[in-house]
Amino acid sequence: MHTWNAAEHREPERLLTGEADLRQAVDEADVVVLLQAHREYLGGTLDGVRVFDTRGVLTGDTVDRL
């Protein structure tokens, strides 16, 4: 699991913790919005999941594009 400190990127001090099991997090989510292409998301984790893709990089019956 990765912890990202926003303060290191000129943002207010707050820690953002990633998900250890991305597929489980996707399965439990009400909505999945793809803001940017990322190898973890493009590597099959989102297969079969309804996704709103703002980048236009995914295709399929469960993908809606911006």
The assembly state of the depicted protein chains is: single chain
H and E string:
EEHEHEE
Q: Which geometry do the CA atoms define?
A: globular
Counting DSSP H or I runs of 4 or more residues, the number of helices is 2
Portion in strands: 15-25%
Mean pLDDT: 76
Helix content: 10-25%
User: Stretches where pLDDT falls below 50 for ≥5 residues?
Assistant: none
User: What is the makeup of the main sheet?
Assistant: 3 strands, parallel
- The CA-CA distance between the termini, in Å, is 30 Å
| Class per helix and strand makeup | alpha/beta
The neighbouring-strand order within the major sheet is: 3-4-5
Number of strands: 5
Task: Write down the domain tally.
Answer: 1
- What's the alpha carbon Rg, rounded to whole Å? 14 Å
What features would you describe in this structure?
- The protein has 66 residues and is an alpha/beta fold.
- The chain has one domain.
- It is 21% helix and 21% strand.
- The chain contains 2 helices and 5 strands.
- Helix 2 links the parallel strand 3 and strand 4.
- The chain is globular.
- It starts with a strand and ends with a strand.
- The relative contact order is 0.16.
- The model has no long low-confidence stretch (mean pLDDT 76).
